[in-house]
Amino acid sequence: MKIEVQYQGGDECAVIGHLAESADGRVFFEYDQNWKAQPIELSPAYLPNSTQGSVTTPTPQYGQLFGLFGDSLPDWWGQQMMKRFFQDKGIPWSSVGVLQKLACAGAHAMGAIGYEPPAVSSDFRDELTVEVADLVNNATSFLHGKTDEILPGLMRSGLSPGGAQPKVLLGFNRDFSRTMAGGGGLPDGFDRWLLKFDLDSDYQHGKEEYAFSLMAKSAGIDMAETYLLECGNGMSHFLSKRFDRPGESRRHIHTYSGLTHTQIRDGVEYNQLMDLTRILTGSELGVEEIFRRACFNVLAGNDDDHSKNHAFLMQPNGQWVVSPAYDLTSTTNPLASGMRAASVNGKSVGIDRNDLAELGRRQSVRRVDDVIDEVIHAIKRWPEWANQSGLSDYRVDQVADEMPAYAL
Q1: Which of 156, 113, 87 is nearest to 14 (CA)?
Q2: Alpha-carbon distance 240 to 226, whole Å?
Q3: Best CA proximity match to 195, nearest among 233, 236, 156
Q4: What is the pTM of this model?
Q5: Which residue segment(s) compose the domain that 41 sits in?
């Protein structure tokens, strides 16, 4: 199988190159000669524009794909929907390769990279009006295996990468009274949002993540606009405005995992993340932003800040910046309970203020103590943020008990 890789972040769609799978299952990529003349470097570490000929990944332990394309694969939720899609067409999931998955994502993957040809009919992602309640009901049935049907809106809305929580990419009008599938073009007055389903109101996931977003903004962290969509059935869905799709333009996004070919299970070290930020962006403000996030994640009890939860965004001129923060919540590391996914100075447990201060000094961060104090102050206002989101008193206290900042 061979597919064309396209860059859709400019005024016109441009061919980046081609991906092809060999008989032995290896995936090769070759840049288009016209693209190689571009000044934009989409993945400077493992796929610089100077790459010659047809190449396969030098890190097969990371996966079959270069990280540039691995970032486009859907998450667990998206893969489950994709699996059903292929099975409905009589194609065993075991025979579906990574190129078919990329082709299925087509032009509607996150960021500015698209893939052709599509693995589906031309009307697969046509725009349509969707009802959030129907999406939620179908997602619930889908997760519990109670239906053989996939609501078209689920697939048309986009197979979003990142995390395992059910989610869709949607378009909302300004007052959130109308919703459309967010895979393609949207009419005037609509913006693109990522909606995370609240499938069980008892768990209050949407309210908690919304409260964390308010707290992070107060701590000085760069966050996309967020919103809590409260429905009449008691469900509260968390929405985050898509920073990869400002207006009708598209921005290339690359995770730390994809840039460095780091698997989630291998963790990430904040010193290395800050070093990469300095090299890639050339901005000390970006390095300081990562330091502030390290303080927030450690002191707020977000232990699941793995390599896919840190990303970089490319500006139209090719300049890299740190992307807005995302997936900030009170979450343990599912791969190693009790240990952080991101370490500080080599430590994955028992990280305290002194460790964070040492991290800041190593990286020549300005006002280290002030930054830590500002983050602690915002976290200690947790009940205020939680009350704004409507989180239950029981969960407010439970989360606070798990926040290291309260011990300082």
Answers
A1: 113
A2: 4
A3: 236
A4: 0.91
A5: 2-116
For residue 109, count CB atoms less than 10 angstroms from its CB and return exposed for 0-12, middle for 13-18, buried for 19 or more: buried
Residue 154 CA, chain-centre distance (Å), reads 18
pLDDT in tens, 85-134: 788 778 898 999 999 989 888 877 889 999 987 555 444 444 456 667 77
Position 248 in a domain: no
CA distance 132 to 149: 17
For 261-293, the pLDDT digits (tens) are 999 999 999 999 999 999 999 999 999 999 999
Q: Is 98:66 a contact under the CB 8 Å cutoff?
A: no
Please answer whether residues 309 and 323 qualify as being in contact, where contact means their C-beta atoms are separated by less than 8 angstroms.
no
Task: With respect to residue 139, please indicate whether it lies within any of the assigned structural domains.
Answer: yes
Tokens of 52: 């010659």
Assess if residue 358 is contained within a domain: yes
Q: Give burial (CB, 10 Å; 0-12/13-18/19+) of 370.
A: exposed
Q: Both 207 and 262 in a single domain?
A: no
Please give the sequence-ordered ranges of beta strands (E in DSSP) within 88-220, or none if there are none.
113-116, 167-173, 179-181, 190-196
Does residue 258 sit in the same domain as residue 403? yes
- 125 with 109: CB under 8 angstroms? no
Residue 286 belongs to a domain:
yes
